[in-house]
Design brief:
Layout (H helix, E strand, L loop, with lengths): L1 E6 L12 H15 L3 E5 L3 H10 L3 E4 L14 E4 L3 E10 L20 E9 L4 E9 L5 H16 L9 E6 L19 E2 L21 E6 L1 E8 L3 E2 L2 E2 L6 E7 L1
Length: 251
């Protein structure tokens, strides 16, 4: 199974030559060539979600906005119609009240944060697996730690197909050696499939410092290959993050 985490960048027409309108063709070309089974997007604004649903014709696209009215950014999951079947899906907020829309942790930014969790069936392998796609807070270190812990604790309490292999992915806004990411070490069955991948956020190589903040953690899978999508055409990137692609097989 080819699995991708892809921060597609909020489209507010703020990026000049790398505005979303200039990146669309490159994104579609790359996805069409690689044909991943699952793509976990972050920073998907409503009009970008519409675009994904219109253009990714071989995929179903699921997710909703993080605001109280289900607008604003989504953490969207796109999965191939011909190879993956959806069994169950839910969105919950990273907070002490996860089923109160737009709820947040006390030390969080003004941005609510959500996770999109889905239980899938792989047609070819005849196996069930779970995916959690998220985007942790960009300001609150405590909120990042609490959010990641919330995700992992929820996975441990799963009831339907409780023993299914699982993948946790997304933009964690934290480096691998940060205290926030130490939470994952409490769950040794989850391996960092992107360990050593290097810089994932590059900011179009402009003023912001590059860092490694995009991850794919998995338990019950082996990784045969992992790479960053570093495609660039006439100075235009896929995004301000390098999407990361891992080829995974069930253990």
């Amino acid at each position: 199974m080819k699995f991708v985490t892809f921060n597609i960048r909020c489209d507010y027409s703020q990026d000049g030559d790398n505005n979303f309108c200039f990146r669309k063709a490159l994104i579609l070309e790359k996805i069409g060539r690689e044909r991943p089974d699952i793509i976990c997007f972050q920073e998907v604004l409503p009009h970008v979600a519409v675009w994904l649903k219109e253009e990714l014709k071989e995929y179903y696209v699921i997710g909703c906005g993080r605001s109280e009215t289900l607008e604003n950014e989504q953490v969207t999951i796109a999965y191939r119609k011909d190879s993956i079947n959806l069994i169950q899906m839910e969105t919950y907020w990273l907070s002490e009240t996860p089923y109160v829309p737009a709820s947040r942790y006390p030390d969080q930014s003004i941005c609510p944060r959500v996770s999109t969790e889905a239980l899938f069936e792989d047609y070819a392998a005849k196996k069930v697996f779970r995916v959690v796609n998220t985007h942790l807070d960009h300001e609150g270190k405590g909120a990042r730690e609490q959010g990641l812990r919330q995700i992992m604790e929820k996975l441990e309490k799963a009831s339907l197909f409780a023993q299914a292999p699982a993948i946790v992915t997304g933009d964690m806004n934290a480096e691998p050696d940060s205290p926030e990411m130490a939470v994952i070490q409490e769950y040794p069955d989850y391996k960092n499939m992107t360990e050593g991948i290097g810089i994932t956020y590059h900011g179009y190589l402009r003023t912001e410092s590059p860092c490694s903040i995009d991850y794919i953690f998995a338990q019950g899978f082996a990784c045969t290959k992992v790479e960053k999508w570093e495609d660039r055409k006439d100075g235009v990137f896929l995004s301000d993050h390098y999407p990361v692609c891992a080829e995974l097989s069930f253990e």
